[in-house]
Amino acid sequence: MRLRHCTISLLIVLICLAFARTTSAQALDISSGGQPTITGAVGGSVIGSALVTDDLVVTINFGEVSPLNTNSIVKVTVPFALRSNQPYQVSVSMSGLTNANAQALQASDIGFGIQNPRLLGGAGKICTQSTHIVRSPFNNDPAITAAVGTNGRVSYQSSLANLSGSTIILSGPELSKNNSIKRQQSDGWVFDAIFTLTPQFFAAGVSSVTLTFSISAGPNAPC
Amino acid sequence: MPRKILFKSILLTTLVIVAAVTCLGQSTTGTVSMSATVSKFVEINSGGAVTLAGNSGGGVTTDGVANSPLAVAINLGELGPSNTNSFVTASVPLKIRSNAAYVLSMTATVTSSGTSSSRIGAADIGFGLGTISRSGVGVNTGGSDTNATSGDPTLAANGSVNGTTGRYEFTAVRSNLSAFSSATIALSGPIIMNAVPRSNANGLTVPALFAVKPQFFENGTSTISVTFTVTAP
């Protein structure tokens, strides 16, 4: 009788494990894609994990962005890794940065683009039927597309001002060959999120903003 | 007894599921937090070339170069009666830029080799700030600037011959360098620049006007040194 109960319990456990594994096989994952970098900063920094198995948690301090910073631009590159075995999409939402003074730092003053898609090791999946699409207007390096507008202020092809609610910035076919239940070192794709800020005569003050990157099931994209 | 086993089985199953989910180590969200600092910034540079007029001899030794650090040297030439012009004047263009309200202060020293009261002194050097201009792309044209000087020192309203001593005097408020023996505000105003890069060369320009009335000063040489300082209080 005891043996019977044990057997039933074991079966239940196995079924549950299988269920969990099945669920994970459909999982979508976003993580760090490597060490973030910063250039052109005065008193700035970027903190994030270099391990692709760690969560994507990055803190950027652009530092001084008044004319006291004589560099032409502050550029931060944040690699992020994506894993999925189904079509995916990545959206970004923004909170903070509500300066009432138009001459203070605004969302449009922070350039934002997605560049440099690449395989995360040998188990990243290469699909021939669909490609990874960086949604317009984010497919650019804002350090390159930065330009002075007619009002003398620097603008970018895409910036944080292009984020409205939860904005889809990227989508594509499945990313991973493996169906591992754990993050692997080499089972997806890496993209660079590039942020730029040009030092200008902004009204004095300290500004902050938080972006949340989310991955979810995306539109049909055959592999 | 069977109920007990069943209960344990459910517990174990729950534990396994929780463990399995935990072991997934996956996440569908990530965060990027950003911050930036904008400190108050002010600067003063040359607004361009110096204009010297009414001089006899002398000349601009080191001229101003627009948008370069202000470091001008002028030889006013002969200031005795042999110079028959009514005034020797020098106009030194200044360019000020800021991302905050600004204050322009000035300190002046005048030294002469003469020993009598007829030597050239700070009161003999007329001074004033001319027309203030806020123009060009990226310059904030809102608000108004306060000129604490009386403007062009050669204006009749700003000076005249003293009826008693016969000496020409710059009499208006802060119209000569004796008013600037210590740091004294000459100009102030609101934020000058909109949010534009430092490479934008525009700003607030104002000429610093100096004037000397050639007179029977005690002979000798004089040195006039003026320092402009801009701050964002």
The computed structural class of chain A is mainly beta
The largest pleated sheet of chain A is described as:
5 strands, antiparallel
Mean pLDDT of chain A: 90
**What order do the SSEs of chain B take from the amino end to the carboxyl end, as H and E?**
HEEEEEEEEEEEEEEE
Largest interface: A-B, 78 and 48 residues
Low-confidence stretches of chain B: 15-24
Q: Unreliable stretches of chain A, pLDDT < 50, 5 or more residues?
A: 13-26
Please report the number of helical segments of chain A: 2
Molecular structure report:
The complex is a heterodimer of chains A (223) and B (233). By secondary structure, chain A is mainly beta. Chain A has one domain (2-217). Chain A has two helices and 13 strands; from the N terminus they run αββββββββαβββββ. In chain A, strands 1, 2, 5, 7 and 12 form a five-stranded antiparallel sheet that branches. In chain A, strands 8-11-6-13 form a four-stranded antiparallel sheet, with no helix packed on it. The N and C termini of chain A lie far apart (51 Å). In chain B, the strands form four sheets. In chain B, strands 2, 3, 6, 8, 9 and 14 form a six-stranded antiparallel sheet that branches. In chain B, strands 10-13-7-15 form a four-stranded antiparallel sheet, with no helix packed on it. Chain B has 233 residues and is mostly beta strands. Chain B has one domain. Chains A and B meet through helix 1, strand 1, strand 4, strand 5 and strand 12 of A and helix 1 and strand 1 of B.
Topology:
The complex is a heterodimer of chains A (about 220) and B (about 230).
Chain A: H1 2-25, E1 28-32, E2 37-39, E3 45-47, E4 57-64, E5 74-84, E6 88-96, E7 110-120, E8 133-134, H2 142-145, E9 147-148, E10 154-155, E11 167-172, E12 188-197, E13 205-217
Antiparallel strand pairs in A: 1-5, 2-5, 3-4, 5-12, 6-11, 6-13, 7-12, 8-11, 9-10
Chain B: H1 2-24, E1 29-38, E2 42-46, E3 51-53, E4 59-62, E5 73-75, E6 88-98, E7 102-112, E8 125-129, E9 133-135, E10 146-147, E11 159-161, E12 168-170, E13 184-189, E14 203-212, E15 222-231
Antiparallel strand pairs in B: 2-6, 3-6, 4-5, 6-14, 7-13, 7-15, 8-14, 9-14, 10-13, 11-12
